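Person: Show me a sequence?

Helper:
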Amino acid sequence: MIKVKCTSILLLLLVIGTGGCANDIRDRVDVVAPEGVLEKNEFVNILADIQLIEAASKNRVWRNDDVEKRLGDAYNEVFSKHDITERQFKVSHRWWWNHPVAMKGVLLEVTEKITQLEIEAR
């Protein structure tokens, strides 16, 4: 009888604990970016461009002593291309990373976009 009560209490706590986590907006895949935050498709395109810049930097495509400056200039070119500011990017970056389930979808789309670019380049 005591074993049944303990099991019931543990199951009840598990259900309550799981239910509380499921309602956290950050754990939803279908979040909508608020005003001031880049929408998913735009953010995906910007992150894809940034990933290409990061890859070029890591592969030492730039043969310059001032790699940090070149990297900063490249970031600014991406921001200009997408008509955003560095601040807009940072605010959006923070917001999307605070929504991990949705961000996982963003990163998958970035990967797909880069893969498509590789295929087209061949």
Summary: The first helix runs from residue 2 to 22. Residues 29-121 form one domain. Residues 3-7 have pLDDT under 50 and may be disordered.
